[in-house]
Amino acid sequence: MAGGLQLFRAITTGVTKDNKAIFPVMPYLDYGKLDESDILAVIAYIRNLPSIETSFPEREIDFPMNFIINTIPQRASLTTRPDPIDQVAYGKYVFTAAACTECHTKAVKGKIVGEYLAGGFEFEFPDGSVLRSSNITKHSTGIGLWDREFFINRFTAYNDPLFPLTPVAPGEFQTVMPWYMYAGMTREDLGALYDYLETVPPVDNLVERFTPAGL
Ligand code: HEC
Q1: Which of 98, 184, 198, 207 could form a disulfide with 119 if both were Cys (CB 3.0 to 4.6 A apart)?
Q2: Distance 209 CA to ligand 1 centre (A)
Q3: Residue of the nearest CA to atom 21 in ligand 1?
Q4: How many CA atoms lie within 13 A of 14 on its CB side?
């Protein structure tokens, strides 16, 4: 299982088998805080997928990120998955496993510049439009008015085969929020996520969700 060890290191510390730092869009800093058994389960799953031969160009990273990237990997600090009875601790673990922080805390070129989970992280589309992540703290400019049930349903709604899919024309609002992936979580895990978010300090930050190109 040498390949398994390399995968374990890549997922939890951000270093590839060729000793290169992985671009931090891959949330290895979060994964390095999980329970060893959960990482091993993911590796077992990946190992079970059919192998497909692909090729892709070498990555190119602009200055100064090409240097900064090497300073980000960290030794993993694995933990034990908390008992779901402790909703907040368990919710925080689920939150880490789902890597919500990466998109919901504003950062520029890998450096955090915003308050924890107050949103505003910018995703620029090739046409020049800008999408920003939401404030998911419990402030009225965030999800302060959402109750637990509403929060859970907002995610599980995507499991409904009748969920209205709206076609998106070029230049219109679209999202990178992985709604469909998270919709597969259990209601218990989503509820625990909410319980954890309730413990995060509320931040007053009104985010403009989307700016079309040219504005
Ligand atoms: C790949 C980036 C990304 C990740 C990862 C991500 N989000 Fe989001 N999220 C966004 C963006 C961008 C938006 C704003 C657009 C939208 O509403 O879809 C958003 C919107 C939301 C909203 C809607 C808030 C509102 O006011 O309508 C909630 C709630 C939310 N995210 C919670 C989470 C949680 C909880 C997680 C982890 C389980 C998570 N997000 C992970 C990018 C992300």
Answers
A1: 207
A2: 11
A3: 134
A4: 22
Residue 3 confidence (pLDDT): 74
- Burial letters 53-87, b for 16+ CB under 10 A, else e: eeeeeeeeeeeeeeeebeeebeebeeeeebebeeb
Report d(CA 38, CA 34) in Å as an integer. Answer: 7
Residue 124 banded pLDDT, cuts 50, 70, 90: very high
CB 131 near ligand 1, within 6 Å = yes
pLDDT value at 23 more than 80? yes
Query: Which residue out of 133, 138, 166 has the highest number of ligand 1 atoms within 8 Å of its CB and is therefore the one to mutate?
Result: 133
